[in-house]
Amino acid sequence: xxxxHDHGDHDNHLDPMDARVRALETILVQKGLIDxxxxxxxxxxxxxxxxxxxxxxxxxxxxxDPEFAAWLARDATAAIADMGFTGRQGEHMQxxxxxxxxxxxxxxxxxxxxxxxxxxxxxxWYKSPAYRARxxxxxxxxxxxFGLTLPxxxxxxxxxxxxxxxxxxxxxxPEGTEGMDLTALADLVTRExxxxxxxxxxxx
Length: 204
Description:
The protein is mainly α and about 200 residues long. The protein has helices spanning about 15-30, 35-65, 65-75, 75-80, 115-120, 125, 130-135, 140-145, 180-185, 190-195, and strands spanning about 95, 100-105, 155-160, 165-170.
């Protein structure tokens, strides 16, 4: 599966929508209407700081607080909002919990619905037609391409996000994390783990 590309990619490798966005950005920069550095800073904030960090805090709290985990399972929208994480495409949320018997994966087969306020900007691969089509048909093979090989006994369930409902995967807490505080636990939670294409990092 294709993964994130940096700004060094050539425009002819972009899909039509990304190419149009790149062309529009170029025109706006040339006219002096936007500062490319400011745009990059905003993108970096949503892609790597605000979004994924928010979701990681939600997961870490669910790992350590059974009452919060139960609330998250029952009403993820309210539980997440209680932590102050609301906003674009995060209005209607459902949390799905990984177990030894079931691994959850998120996709949006129609477009790229994604909870920005919890996970940040959607990665390139999440929006790609290949991921959106194949993960529904052959999820185990797609996960293997991400480097995630699950036991044959583990069922894989694919959840299809829509404009009305978006999902957050709560991965299983790694072994050896007893006694770690919320900040340290959140540092183990990756964006991929919250989409279902990866697992949390192991403690050092």
